[in-house]
Amino acid sequence: MALLEEAAAEGQSAHEVLGDDIPGFCTALTGGTGARTYRDRWRDQLNRTVARKLARLES
């Protein structure tokens, strides 16, 4: 899981990456019906990371 490896390298916890819906993440990862995809979660994480880094630059 590159997403979790990258997050760990940045000092983020699994909870920060996966959010409160751990079962939903697992369902999406295994391709469950109606679940958000791994790509959707990765995109959300990427957006949060970019926003956090941009906020640091503005300070």
Q: Helical segment tally? A: 4
User: Rough shape?
Assistant: elongated
- Which whole number gives the mean pLDDT? 81
**Record field, number of beta strands:** 0
How is the main sheet built?
none
Structural class given helices, strands, pairing? mainly alpha
- List the uncertain runs: none
The amount of beta strand, in percent, is under 5%
Q: How far is the N terminus from the C terminus?
A: 32 Å
Write down the secondary-structure element order.
HHHH
Number of domains: 1
Helix percent band: over 70%
Radius of gyration: 13 Å
Task: Explain what this protein looks like in three dimensions.
It is elongated, with a radius of gyration of 13 Å. The longest helix is centred in the last third of the chain and has 21 residues, at 38-58. 3% of the residues are buried. It is mainly α. The model has no long low-confidence stretch (mean pLDDT 81). The chain has helices spanning 2-9, 14-18, 22-29, 38-58. Helix content is 71%, strand content 0%. It has one domain. InterPro entries: UCP029876. Pfam families: DUF1048.
Key structural traits:
4 helices, mainly alpha, single chain, 59 residues, elongated
Short description:
The chain contains four helices and no strands.
Q: What is the fold's blueprint, element by element?
A:
Elements: H1 2-9, H2 14-18, H3 22-29, H4 38-58
